[in-house]
Amino acid sequence: MVILHKQTGGKGIFFIGEEGAFLAEMVYTLPSPGKMIIEHTEVSEELRGQNIGYQLVSAAVDYARHHSLKIIPLCPFANAVFKKKPEFADILFS
Predict the structure, then answer these.
(1) What is the pLDDT of residues 6-25, one digit of tens each?
(2) Which CATH number fits domain 4-91: 3.40.50.360, 1.10.760.10, 3.40.630.30, 3.40.50.1000?
(3) Regarding beta strands 35-43 and 11-18, do their DSSP bridges make them parallel or antiparallel, or are they unpaired?
(4) Per-residue pLDDT tens for 37-79?
(5) Does position 88 have pLDDT exceeding 80, yes or no?
(6) Are 5 and 63 in contact (CB under 8 A)?
(7) Most Cβ neighbours (<10 Å): which of 3, 31, 32, 86?
(8) Helix or strand or coil: residue 8?
(9) What is the pTM for the complete model shown?
(10) Pairing label, strands 35-43, 21-29
(11) Domain edges within the chain
C-alpha cells in the first residue's frame, strides 16, 4: 500500500486511496513552528487488521523527524501507538 501525503497551510493528511475516497487517513495540524498534532486516524473496514493505522502513524513520525517537528498525539489510536513504540519517544512533544 502506498501512503500519500497532502499538506495545505497548517493542516495535512497521510492517506491511502484517492482524494475524496480515502480508505485510510491520519489527519494532523501544524499549530506552531516545530509542532505537529495528530488529530484523527481512521481505517476503512476493508483495510482493518492489516497494520495500516500503524503505517500511517509511522509515516507521520518519519515526516516529523525529517522536518524537525515534535508530535502531540491527541488521537487515541496514535497515542496508543506511541505508548507501544519506545523508538518513537524522541519525536514526542514534552
Answers:
(1) 999 999 999 999 767 899 99
(2) 3.40.630.30
(3) unpaired
(4) 999 999 999 999 999 999 999 999 999 999 999 999 999 999 9
(5) yes
(6) yes
(7) 3
(8) strand
(9) 0.94
(10) antiparallel
(11) 4-91
What angle in degrees, to the nearest 10, is found between the helix axes of 76-84 and 52-66? 80
Buried b (16+ CB within 10 A) or exposed e, 1-35: eebeeeeeeeebbbbbeeeeebbbbbbbbbeeeee
pLDDT at 18: 75
C-alpha cell at 35: 509542532
CA proximity to 70, closest of 28, 41, 40: 28
